[in-house]
Amino acid sequence: MFDDWQEYGEIQEIPPEIHEFDESIGEEFLNDFKGSIDFSTDTLEELENLNDHTKRAVGITSEFFTDDLIREWPSIGTEQRREYLTAYGENLLQQFAIQDVSIRFEEMEANQRGYQGGGEIVLNTDCLSDPRRLKGAIETMAHECEHAFQEEAIKYPEAYEISSELAALWKRDKKHYCDGEYDFQPYFQQSIELDARMAGKAALATLGG
Predict the structure, then answer these.
(1) Residue 61 — left, alpha, or beta (φ > 0 → left; ψ -120 to 50 → alpha)?
(2) Is 74 exposed, middle or buried (0-12, 13-18, 19+ CB in 10 A)?
(3) Which string of b and e fits 45-64 if b means at least 16 CB within 10 Å?
(4) Is the distance from CB of 103 to CB of 120 less than 8 angstroms?
(5) Is the per-residue pLDDT at 9 higher than 90?
(6) In sequence order, which residues have a C-beta less than 8 Å from that of residue 113 and are 6 or more positions away?
(7) What is the residue-wise DSSP string for 62-87?
(8) Of residues 12 and 187, which shows the higher confidence score?
(9) Which of 8, 44, 27, 26 is nearest to 206 (CA)?
(10) What digits encode the pLDDT tens for the residues 129-166?
């Protein structure tokens, strides 16, 4: 149930930081990471259309992915990356008062980043083995958590501060979902995909310029 969402807004403890790493590599990695994030005026204006509940939820991104952690990312192991990304996703879900969705990783095709459904969020394992995929992993996790949020908001629009019109639009798109297998454009333009992409961009935008 959604009614108790405020009980789940506190950030959970995240895995301990690792302090043994090559500082020169870490600084270069941090600069490259931040330089790859789109902070253009058009993007920032687009994010203003994101619902207020999601804006607040993705605000935790910068609490997880501090500059220190991003510097250390190339030197920590795959299991530690898994722990950090899982904890990040779990806390995003808690901001939405979602308790019955699990997070895991599996091998996928190189062009697949992740998916949500059946009570779980799944990301491609390549984001664990390749540190350069951190940006995509953060964006994908926020994107897929937003899809989980959409499902709840369709059921409880007032509790989630979503208009009945938007909830109806999301419900229609869920019912007539286009997976893009044969035509990517309709998939790309669906309201639930537009919203989820904005959530991913908003998460990255919290990490500063």
Answers:
(1) alpha
(2) middle
(3) ebbeebbebbbebbebbeeb
(4) yes
(5) no
(6) 123, 124, 127, 136, 140
(7) HHHS-HHHHHHGGGS-HHHHHHHHHH
(8) 187
(9) 44
(10) 999 999 999 999 999 999 999 999 999 998 888 899 99
* Tokens describing residue 39: 């902070």
Helix-then-strand count for the chain, H and E: 11, 3
Q: Which two tokens stand for residue 109?
A: 């095709």
C-alpha span between 91 and 134 (Å, rounded): 17
**What number of residues does the chain have?**
209
Nearest-angstrom CA–CA distance, 128 and 186: 31
Average of per-residue pLDDT values in the chain: 86
